[in-house]
Amino acid sequence: MFTLKMESIAFNLGPIPVHWYGIILGTAALVGLLLAVQEGKRFGLSPEFFMDLLLFGVPSAIIGARIYFVAFKWDEYKNDLPSVFAVWNGGIAIYGALIGAFICGFIYFRYKGYNFWRIADICAPGLLAGQMIGRWGNFVNQEAYGGPAEESFLRDTLHLPGWIVNQMNVEGVFHHPTFLYESLWSLVGIIVLMVLRRRPFLRAGELLFSYFIWYSIGRFFIEALRTDSLGFNGPSWLASFVDALWSPMTVLGFEQGYLDPAYGNIRISQLLALFLVIGAIALIIIRRQTGLAKARYLDPIISTKTGMPAGAEAASSDAAAAQHADRTNKANDETDLNTKE
């Protein structure tokens, strides 16, 4: 049967190949930026603030993602160090990207004089949008897919278009499009976060925690379908516990993807997803009970450097400049009048 496989290289700039993976990641970053800029305007934050964040955040995320991935597969890279930098071939871990991005964000927000939780809340839907789009890079590269699936399941049960089904044919075997499952889960999550951020009960930091809860729940169930999971050898009771939590998926007709015993018996991303869900819920409760979450999401964002709401400094500066210009113009008019007299 004829199948069409997408090439990983979009075009060439002379001798330099431009990969679809990079184009998709760039698009993901841009869409995330636009969402943050749009919401930031409501709080007086300038687009330049988020553009600078993107310039620092994207490299930090890529570096963190690659370090995280390579660290757990060091045996495969230690004898081929140049391949460590070949991120265009895939092999980046989203949790590593989040670690890198959040470290960068914490430093940047403190430098700018803003509370970390307030700005992170604004960025949360953009993060999810970036992940939603970025997963299509895995689609083009034919990576991060799930275990074998019947072609009829993809075409007739899921009603996927032929160009997706064909790309899921890897060396003659059709696979679950886990990139698509996660992308759709993220899309629904964006809607959920956008509804939540207009609710008056939401406290500072809780939209970010909601992002972690939503994404991690989806990641827990989708991760077990994949065949390339990073793993480790843990106690058998823990492996059984994780499998039991995932077992409702079997009712829907899904089976877990292959996990190489050489990597372990527990998928790292599944376990981390559980910790994030529990940790996020615990932090919401603790911060409310201890009074650390006094500020609400809809409250003005106050600069820790000036004590003024975000954007007020610029407005004050503009007003002062306008007054100075007005006084200058009046003085010039008086000078001209005296000269004429």
What does this structure look like?
The chain has helices at about 20-40, 45-70, 75, 95-110, 115-140, 150-155, 160-165, 180-195, 205-225, 235-245, 250, 270-290, 310-340, and strands at about 10-15, 15-20, 170, 175, 230, 265. The chain is mostly helical. About 60% of the residues lie in helices and about 5% in strands. The longest helix has 29 residues, at about 310-340.
Taking the sheet with the most strands, its summary is:
2 strands, antiparallel
Helix content class: 55-70%
Please give the number of β-strands: 6
Note poorly predicted spans: 316-322
The mean pLDDT is: 88
Strand content: under 5%
The total number of structural domains is: 1
Q: Which oligomerization state do the chains in this entry correspond to?
A: single chain
Shape: globular
Element-level helix/strand string: EEHHHHHHHEEHHEHHEHH
Helix count? 13
**If strands are numbered along the chain, what order do they take across the biggest sheet?**
1-2
Q: Report how far apart the termini are.
A: 95 Å
Cα Rg? 25 Å
Structural class: mainly alpha
